[in-house]
Amino acid sequence: MLVLFVLEAKLRGSTKQFAIIDEMIRTAGFVRNSCIRHWMDNRDVGQYDLSALCAVLAREYEWAKKLNSQARQASAERAWQSIKRFYDNCKNPSVKKKGYPKFKKSRSVEYKTTGYKLSEDRQSITFIDGFKAGSFRMIGAFNLKYYQLEQIKRVRVVRRADGYYAQFCIDHDRLEEVKPTEQIIALDVGLMHFYTDNRGNKVDNPRHLKKSEKALKRLGRRVSRKVKGSKKRRKAINKLGRKHLKVSRQRKDFAVKLARCVVKSNDLVVFEALKVRNMVKHRHLAKSISDAAWRQFFEWLEYYGIVFGKIVIAVPPQYTSTECSLCHRIVKKSLSERTHACECGCILDRDENASRNLLAKGLELLSRGGHSRINAQGHLNLCQISESKA
């Protein structure tokens, strides 16, 4: 099955070259925000009108013309994506916050098939548009030599706290053959334990943010003590950003490895179709839910389900914690009650009982032919997934 995935490599260059990349990123952000402004002033414009605006901006601003034409088109596409999402949310009455398009500070610039050139050994990249940023050595790009240039659909340059990265969106037929395990699993995610399956096995919640919270607060205090606009403040902000970046990478690494292990060792995986966006509104649990990164874990479950050819199903979580998995009575309980005790004599861990109910729902959905390869949020954006962490 053809999938799009991302290979990422860190760029090595001079300070002058990275300053030019910053100009490229600012220009891409200018094009994107200009398209949003044009839509705000003329609500009847469409995607093709925004694409035509790119040529107008190139004629009006000499520095905007330096950016590759396809890179300007990619920025216009980003603007249209936010506009289209707003229109779709307006048509959906269940979505309360429609997400009106806003101006954003860009942190990346995206090329399609022109504006850059790879070396023969695929270990360096040269940007050949009007900015003339020059050649950059890529660290961690050894996997690029296994793919043809035609398979690279887009190249994105991303600025992060610890440097600049090149992301290659590759179209590849990735399907790994694995032997059937004849095992099925249902996962009930939580905060005390990351998940509990239908056999009672538990995986501890790593709590990456909580473990780093003390260091983050210390670095935040250092930033507040520095004079605004000074070099020391910029350095302190960079150290704080690096720490946040490390936490996010730890979280992603845990989700990727765990999802791969779960899918590879089971033929059927059932998980909860949680609306995490609504759950993080809880003022007491928002930080813990965000730290657990359930949504990221679910997306990787779906991805590896496609790669390994396994069945991964998201089922509604309603009443799975209160319903008895043995007699199907409703046993109401508070969040502090961690044991399910029913009149029928069924005594189980609360999360294990919920996972058994999830498994029953998954099997019922599968028997009715309701299986669909989409994740709990209704989409599967493989271009946001980095192969370097797989």
Commentary on this structure:
It is a single chain. This protein is of the alpha+beta class and 390 residues long. The chain has two domains: 172 residues, no CATH class; 206 residues, no CATH class. The protein is built from ten helices and 14 strands. The strands form three sheets. The chain has a seven-stranded antiparallel beta sheet. Strand 3 and strand 4 form a beta hairpin. The longest helix is centred in the middle third of the chain and has 34 residues. The protein starts with a strand and ends in a 23-residue tail after the last helix.
- Give me the strand/helix succession: EHHHHEEEEEEEEEHHEHHHEEEH
Can you count the beta strands?
Answer: 14
The rounded Rg comes to: 24 Å
Low-pLDDT regions: 372-390
Counting structural domains, the number is: 2
- Biggest beta sheet summary: 7 strands, antiparallel
Amino- and carboxy-terminal Cα gap: 18 Å
What count of helical segments does DSSP give?
10
- Percent range of helical residues: 40-55%
Q: For the largest sheet, list the strands in their spatial order.
A: 2-6-7-1-5-4-3
Range of strand content: 15-25%
Broad structural category: alpha+beta
The residue-averaged pLDDT reads 87
Label the overall shape. Answer: globular
Descriptive key words:
42% helix, 2 domains, 5-stranded mixed sheet, alpha+beta, 390 residues, globular, disordered C terminus, 7-stranded antiparallel sheet
